[in-house]
Amino acid sequence: MSSQAATATIDHHHDHTTSTGIPNKKLLMWAFLASDCMFFGSLISTHLIYRLHPPPGNPSPRDVFDIPLTSFSTFILLMSSLMMALAVNAIQKGNLRSMRFSLLTTIFFGSIFLGGQVYEFTNFVHEKHLTITNSILGTTFYTLTGTHGTHVAIGVLWLIMMYVRSFKPADTAAHPLWFFRNVLHVAVMLGLVLSAMFSVLALVHTLQAGGSLGAFASHNLPLVAAFVVALVAAVALAKPQGPVHFGEANAIDVESMGLYWHFVDIVWIVIFTAVYLLEYL
User: Fold this and answer.
1) What is the DSSP letter of 211?
2) Which of 82, 150, 156, 257 is the most exposed, fewest CB within 10 Å of its CB?
3) For the range 230-237, what are the long-range contacts, defined as Cβ-Cβ under 8 Å and sequence gap of 24 or more?
4) What residue ranges of the chain have pLDDT lower than 50?
5) How far apart, in whole angstroms, are the C-alpha atoms of residue 245 and residue 99?
6) pTM of the model
């Protein structure tokens, strides 16, 4: 009965205490995304203009881009958007455990996308000799995709902080060290994401060079050890210490984060089409 009563009193879509009927947090996020649309619009337009009038000696994008890899990264980012939607739906129903799982999966997918972008940039620089300074294609490409990658990285950090926030105890007086525990939890999650991402990248480079799993382990033992330690610590810190403060009333916070993540995904679809696929039409 109490759960049904709480559901009846919380309106996730309209806030009658504001003049617009839209929660202030959501309105602020929409305003930020509107400004970000203009920012990305200018970057995409710049790339398209120089694409139509490339300076002499500009490398051909077809000789540089790796469409299968970028298509895989695009698919992963789209799946992360689905998991973000499931996280919003879960917290609106008060299902905290399902929300945490969906947030973790979104973090995982977002990290895969970032790892793919790091690998792509490294390959373009060292194998294709495309840098941000040696051609106008490199300048517009790295500026545009790098800015988007920064947005994804900020989103992953925000997701981690929201996930850790869901463990804040309801009675903070009974847990005086909860803040330091949460800070440690965020640091551990960041360490886990970074160590996992760079471990996978090191493994890919080792296999491409003709090495074996044994060679990867011997040359990257500290990195693998850091990943294992971070994984064990993350699992240990993910055990709630009694009732938590986070609940259905915080759905607007997850919704606002979801708006940002969906926006980042939509922008990437535009970038993937305008920057990559357009070269093959």
Assistant:
1) -
2) 150
3) 230/188, 230/189, 230/191, 230/192, 230/195, 231/192, 233/188, 233/192, 234/185, 234/188, 234/189, 234/192, 237/167, 237/181, 237/184, 237/185, 237/188
4) 1-10
5) 14
6) 0.88
